[in-house]
Amino acid sequence: MGQQNGVDETSVVKLHSGNGAHEEMDRRAIACFDQALVDVGLASDTSLTQVLHNYFAWATTTTMARYHRSADDVPTASASLAGLGMDCRLKADS
Question: CA distances (Å), 91 to each of 3, 86, 88, in order?
């Protein structure tokens, strides 16, 4: 993480993998995300907050929760976007 060229989705999924099922932690993460939307002043835009909530909840309970047994089970290339030839890296702060 924090590489000059960014962090890809596979690396992030590996960070969240191999620790068994964690539904309670997922629910808490989603609640924290929702509160962060309120904290930054987005609560008044209900359409935006609903879309952001839905995406974060989906990613938390699917992509980030798929490999309970081991981080080694995560495929090398991101199955969701890399196969489409898209740059899936999150740019690190300079």
Answer: 8, 14, 9
The residues that bridge with 90 in the sheet, in sequence order, are 7
Phi, psi (deg, nearest 5) at residue 78: -60, 125
Apex 47 CA angle, 44 and 49, nearest 5: 65
Q: Residue 7 forms beta bridges with which residues?
A: 90
Dihedral, 16, 56, 54, 34 alpha carbons, nearest 10: 120
> Cβ–Cβ contacts within 10 Å for residue 78, how many?
20
pLDDT tens by residue, the chain, 94 residues: 444 456 787 888 888 888 888 899 899 999 999 999 999 999 999 999 999 999 999 989 988 888 888 888 888 764 554 444 445 454 444 4
